[in-house]
Amino acid sequence: MTDILLNSRRTRRETFHAKPDPTQRGATNPFEEQDKVSVRLITYPAGSITEYHNHNDIEFWTVISGSLRIWMDDHQIELNQGDSIRVEPLQFHRIESPREDTIMHAVWWTDAAYFADAAEQSLDANLDGCSPVIVQPPMITPNGEMHLGHASGPFLQADFAARALRSAGREVLHLQGCQGHLQYLRINAEKHGGEFYEVARRYTDSIRESLGRLNIDFDLFLECEQPKTFDSICHRLLSRLDEANLLAEIERDAPFDEEMQEFRIEALAKGVCPHCQSAGATSECESCGATVTDADLGEVTDYQGKLVVRRKLKRLFLRTELLRDAIRQYAASALLPTRARLYIEKWLAGPLPDVCLSNPYSEGIAVARPGFEDQKYTDVLERVVRYLFALETFGARHYGVSRFEELRPEQIPTTVALFGADNAFGRLVLFPALMIVLGLGKSAPRMVVMNEFLLLNGEKFSTSRNHAVWVNEFIDGTNADPFRFYIARNSPVGQQVDFLPQEFDRWLTDHWQGRIIGTLSGALAFLRKNMTSRSIPMPGAWSRDDVNMYMATKAAMAAIRNSFDLSVLDFSAAARHVESLVDGLSRYLHSAQTRSDKMYAHSAPQFRTEARLVAATLVTIGVAIEPIAPRFGKHILSQFPGTWRIDTWFPADFLTTDLTLGSTVE
């Protein structure tokens, strides 16, 4: 460090301007390209502030004159003249000069090995070691059947995650269920001439059947009708928000149907989104993922296109702007995917909208507040209540703690949040900030999986247009696992994916049955044909083919284990690593079977190595595929009696682990 600071004649002076590119520093490096150290004198004008950002560099700052406020991760540090601070790689920070022009001496350099360690540590710190996990997909609205578009996104991804995390040794609570009291349910009840909850129960039963057909397991399923506990949780939640001055009673113009003499709120109204100007927005905008208040919709009509007027309506609102610091804290402390981080930054760049928390619904959780006796809480608040109910269920099961306020920090589980990009504001902006306000910051999702739409023949699935493939009609006892695997390898996470039924049928025949099942059945047949006992022998003689198969299996184990890690959860990668290993096993079997021809000498030591590698690869594939295609994975593993999981098999030395071929006939 002394050598760097003495080299002052090579130090460059520059002035910071509003919102520079933090990776460019606003000036050319004065050192030659091969030099690893950069030095600057940077002037921050009074009132200037950078965006939150991080680097792969190590940075060292000293205030020469003036003062700075440094936002480091999720806390603030004041630096005055003469103060210095070191910034580690990947440490989120923002620099603010609140009072005066300030000059900072900045030195930064890159150390590849140090950065690699920092990257690994940042993932571990982000996900809190081996803490329990709540897997939280969105809840489906029980106003229709479940179609493949629903299933392909957060619902299957959540089941993949829950199974993989359990296999890796994590304690998991997998939460599933139906939405509470969205007005889509009322629309459907009126359409079918039924009572609100009766229609909701009918479709809830259908949805539960769909989850069963898809082999989706869960630990807690919440139905539309709320348990009595919800009232208590809601009251305590609102008290905390009141104490934080986050609630406001606001009167605004809301859509009103003069003929029916009622307000047309939430899904009963549609119009132009005030945030992205897309048409057809309701309480959530599919185009930008925003939570929208009906009073803010442009060109508003009722959901059938009927013109409405506007009348004053006083409702309860969440003052989201007051959550700005909590949202920043979350964005700075969680190592989020790029799309998630940029989505949050987009909202932080402007004023945050107030969010409606109550409406004049006929069903739902009643607002216990004078002047709001005819209103119920909106889905925005009910989603939080449902999560808190799951948290209290988890606490009661494991710690005997029945109230979320009584959970100690070390007892609070990590949350994996899975949702569609069209629901991002509520799940990625509001929910984490509210968890921080409630003192449950550890429950703010540290692992976020945002999926896009699965298309059907190039268009969005649509219940209203009957442009859909229904789970209960399409999925049967023979195709659930292959469909799960197909969705895993062609995941709509991060991109839209087009589902073509005829393409799936070809894939099912050629790829799943011909390539995957054919190879694994052939491997089991090879063992049963050539082994004289059920015990898989230890290796004998080795050839280049054997070494290649050994290395391929070890590499696949490392790659698949990484894909299932809580910091990654990339099921598309896991599925494709399984396919690659299946292809490698197919080539290896061909070589081994060829050597059994009369043209070659029989070698018992050689067969021992082949049997060991084939059996070990089969167990590896079974462990890897079980979270994605559970019945098929369990079938493979049943051929080798024992308990095989990610946390026990993948770290093991499979050359010396006892393996026995079961008596089950393939």
Tags for this entry?
alpha/beta, five-stranded parallel beta sheet, 24 strands, five-stranded mixed beta sheet
Percentage beta strand: 15-25%
Major β-sheet strand ordering: 1-2-8-3-6
Q: State the secondary-structure class.
A: alpha/beta
Major sheet description: 5 strands, mixed
Compose a concise summary of this entry:
By secondary structure, this protein is an alpha/beta fold.
How is this structure best described in words?
The protein is an alpha/beta fold and 666 residues long. Helices cover 39% and strands 18% of the residues. It has 18 helices and 24 strands. The strands form 7 sheets. It has a 5-stranded mixed beta sheet with strand order 1-2-8-3-6, with no helix packed on it. It has a 5-stranded parallel beta sheet with strand order 11-10-9-20-21, with helices on both faces. Strands 13-12-16-17 form a 4-stranded antiparallel beta sheet. Helix 13 packs across helix 15 (571-594).
List the helices and strands and how they pair.
Blueprint lengths: L1 H5 L5 E4 L21 E8 L13 E8 L1 E6 L2 E6 L3 E4 L5 E4 L5 E8 L2 H16 L5 E4 L11 H20 L4 E6 L5 H10 L3 H18 L6 E3 L6 H15 L3 E11 L4 E2 L5 E4 L25 E5 L6 E10 L5 H10 L4 H11 L6 E2 L1 E2 L16 E2 L1 H21 L14 E7 L3 H14 L9 E5 L2 E3 L2 E2 L10 H4 L5 H10 L7 E3 L1 H30 L13 H20 L7 H24 L9 H22 L4 H9 L7 H4 L17
Parallel strand pairs: 1-2, 9-10, 9-20, 10-11, 20-21, 22-24
Antiparallel strand pairs: 2-8, 3-6, 3-8, 4-5, 4-7, 12-13, 12-16, 14-15, 16-17, 18-19, 22-23
